[in-house]
UniProtKB/TrEMBL annotation:
Annotated family: Belongs to the citrate synthase family.
NCBIfam families: cit_synth_euk, PRK09569.1
A single cellular component GO annotation: mitochondrial matrix
Keywords: Transferase, Transit peptide
Entries under InterPro entries matching the protein: Citrate_synth-like_lrg_a-sub, Citrate_synth-like_sm_a-sub, Citrate_synthase, Citrate_synthase_AS, Citrate_synthase_euk, Citrate_synthase_sf
Domain of life of the native organism: Eukaryota
Organism: Hortaea werneckii EXF-2000
Protein name from the UniProt record: Citrate synthase
PANTHER family, sorted: CITRATE SYNTHASE, CITRATE SYNTHASE, MITOCHONDRIAL
Amino acid sequence: MAGLNVSRTALRRAMAQPTVSRTWTQTAAKASAARTYATASKSLKDTFADGLPEKIEQIKTLRKGYGDKVLGEVTLDQVYGGARGIKSLVWEGSVLDSEEGIRFRGKTIPECQELLPKAPGGQEPLPEGLFWLLLTGEVPSEQQVRDLSAEWAARSEVPSFVTELIDRCPNDLHPMAQFSLAITALEHESSFSKAYAKGMKKTEYWQHTFEDSMDLIAKLPTIAARIYRNVFKDGKVAATQKDKDYSWNLANQLGFADNKDFVELMRLYLTIHSDHEGGNVSAHTTHLVGSALSSPMLSLAAGLNGLAGPLHGLANQEVLNWLLEFKKSVGSDLSDENIKKALWDTLNSGRVVPGYGHAVLRKTDPRYVSQREFALKHLPDDPMFKLVSQVYKVAPGVLTEHGKTKNPYPNVDAHSGVLLQYYGLTEQSFYTVLFGVSRAIGVLPQLIIDRAVGAPIERPKSYSTEALAKLVGAKL
């Protein structure tokens, strides 16, 4: 029993608490007993549970003492402009600063690259470590990350009916639609939905949300790889190797694990694409649907449907398509003058320069910088990378002169496709699925936190145009 994820001590402690039902404790013990890996370190679930009382007390204290404080005013432009900049969401995992970029639990991407555990001999952080950090606020130990890798591998088996569902999809159905469909179908396995149907205490919501989230994340590489192998390859998917980390297994199931640099890229990619605070479409949608007590399966599927849009995650596919087209127009002449002319041709034709600009950022996206540094280290002479570098050098000046872009600098989408195609993953329509695997690692921790602290259903007030005109004293 010493090797189980839920120890005897933890079980006795849980059974002594009136807020945790004996049925739940027995379920957790049974689930843990099914896992064969061993660990002497504190589990992710126990780490989160130990910090939960303090977090709940923090929220109570904040609301009691400062609940009537005004955080800012809302303008009519913000209401009609997609709620940009309105301070109205709680998102614990990350905060996005317009100048500094993203911080995960207060840590920058370079700090995460330095502090988070890596695979033996690896250089990039493991996304397992970021998931731990986002959920608990703590940097995990190497052993805790190894244990989490093992737990996700142990949970990775995809039900046969989901596999059959994917196999029955037509190959011309977009990979993101197949991905969302498969995740929605996993609702059949939802611990949260089954427990809610039987009746459970609110204090147990987070525990079942945790179990569903862990199961979901564990199964995503196999689901994603099956879609990829069905649509673009021979339909054969390698089994999850229980002694390997999450990113290695994803690379292996896609068919690229023989290249250790691609595995490193997956570790970096899954880490930096995971979370970008709570206001983006995929994060907000997952949070919103979850606030209605929909299961993590249904909530994540909804968020991924938002990620599939061309103004969100689909942009990484569109950027590479644009770069390939742009390369044809500039040919082998990558001089500043030729790149500048081609950029102006793009803008003067009424099109935008994809991958440049961001709703919040007003500087180069740190996620772009981390990918650029990876490319400088691993593929400095790649022709597409050289093109991307030249566009990066010239585009900000052109966009500034053009005057219609608030942020003339590149975002994460401006670079990711070039890295993937260099290693042979050239199927652009699949790129957003990889983004979706990563985004699950970022949004599901907040879903667990939402249920743990008792976050309510989200229901902002809406007005008609006539009603808004009346509010501001305008006559239509």
